[in-house]
Structures are given as structure tokens and as C-alpha cells.
TrEMBL record:
Coiled coil: none annotated. The keyword RNA-binding applies. PROSITE patterns: PSI_RSU (PS01149), S4 (PS50889). Pfam families: PseudoU_synth_2. Residues 5-65 form the RNA-binding S4 domain. Its EC number is 5.4.99.-. This is Pseudouridine synthase. It comes from the Bacteria.
């Protein structure tokens, strides 16, 4: 944690006082965090509320996390200028933003939150978090298809990382990726002369889509 996460830094900025004055307020017990007096320069979180002399300086923010089934045909954007945008179908009063992406013709699990830290954390771990998909293609698949997909295919000038691919039946397979290349599965299938007819993300890390239907959501704990 950096100094910017500390109570002293917050007081300096919000009250426009010196570091010495801020520390004095803390040590003398004049600052309340979550309705309790504190006498040390603690690390703050987004959920913390802060008050001085009965005046609330910062309201605690309730962090919300949701697993949402993005329907096919919806763009993963809150920009209302773009047709079929995500914001037009979200049922929440508070604005939640999507973490990660899922292209318009794909569907399935999408994280929604008001916690900006989750977005940063997800970006840093984009090539570490498993994402599982169920895929339907336009013609029968065989062992060669499964083997080639799992070993890696050159798309956009780079070879995809090896991944776990399992055949479900003649036209369906599951695939687990730890990469986030643009339209990766569709491009991989295209290189093998297959067209993706349906693509559903069913898992991100340990969170599964479970029994959600398109447009439905459930609150989750991360």
C-alpha cells in the first residue's frame, strides 16, 4: 500500500491541511472511521466512511459484484450512442460497469461491478485467469481439430497458448483459455475452416454461469 491509501493523506486532501495537522487530528482521536474514533494512520478502503466534528467527509461505498448472462446480440459497452448497448438492458439502479469483454455475437458470463479495483486487477491477471466456453461449429469435428486447437494456432501474427479442449459431440466442444485475444476462439476455428455458430462463456476463474438465462444475474462474492 502507498501513502495515498492512508487516512492522513485523505485528510490533507479533503481538509486542505498540512501533514502535521492531519496526523495531529488522528492521534488526538478527532477522526471517526465507520463511526468509531481512530488514533492511528490506518489504511483506508472504498467501504470506509470518514467523519470529522460530526461532518461526513467521505461516505462508505457499498461494493457490488454480479454475475450476468450477456445475451447474444448485445455490445459489451455502456455507451448509449452504440446500438444494442449493454446499458439499455441492465436492470440495476446503480451504474455497474462490465469487467472484461465478450463480443456481440457471443453470450454468457460477464462480471458487473462498481469496484474499479476489480477492473485493474482483472487486467493485470488477464493472462492468468481461466475462462471456459462451450462452442458450436458448423460441421463435424474430429481428433485432428481438437489436437490442433489445444496445441495452439497462429492468429494475428502470434501462436495461441496451449489450452484444454474437449469434444462434447460432433458439433460441440468446450475450451478453457488463459488468454484474452480479440475474438480468439472464432479466429482459431476459422483457421481450421470452421465457423462458430454459438459461443457461450460458462466460467471465469471459480465463478460459473450456472443456471442463469440470458439477461439474468445473481450477486456474487469475490
Amino acid at each position: 500500500m502507498t501513502f495515498r491509501n492512508r487516512l492522513q493523506y485523505f485528510l490533507v486532501k479533503s481538509l486542505r491541511i498540512s501533514n502535521r495537522e492531519a496526523l495531529s487530528l488522528i492521534l488526538s482521536g478527532q477522526i471517526e472511521v465507520n463511526q468509531r474514533k481512530v488514533e492511528e494512520n490506518i489504511i483506508l478502503t472504498l467501504q470506509d466512511s470518514i467523519a470529522y466534528q460530526g461532518k461526513v467527509l467521505k461516505e462508505g461505498k457499498k461494493l457490488v459484484y454480479a454475475a450476468f448472462y450477456k445475451p447474444r446480440g448485445i455490445e459489451t459497452t455502456l455507451n448509449t450512442q452504440i446500438p444494442d448497448n449493454l446499458k439499455s438492458i441492465l436492470p440495476f439502479e446503480e451504474e455497474l460497469f462490465p469487467v472484461g469483454r465478450l463480443d456481440k455475437e457471443s453470450e454468457g458470463l460477464l462480471f458487473l461491478t462498481n469496484d474499479g479495483r476489480l477492473f485493474d486487477k482483472t487486467l493485470r491477471k488477464e493472462h492468468q485467469t481461466e475462462k471456459e466456453y462451450l462452442v458450436t461449429v458448423d460441421k463435424p469435428i474430429d481428433g485432428h481439430f481438437i489436437k490442433t486447437m489445444s496445441e495452439g494456432i497462429v492468429i494475428m501474427g502470434q501462436t495461441t497458448l496451449s489450452c484444454e479442449v474437449k469434444q462434447i459431440d460432433s458439433y460441440n466442444f468446450s475450451i478453457i483459455l488463459v488468454q484474452g485475444l480479440n475474438r480468439q476462439i472464432r479466429r482459431m476455428c476459422y483457421k481450421l475452416n470452421y465457423e462458430v455458430l454459438k459461443l457461450v462463456r460458462i466460467r471465469i476463474g471459480t465463478i460459473e454461469l450456472e443456471h442463469l438465462s440470458p439477461g439474468e444475474y445473481r450477486f456474487i462474492t469475490l
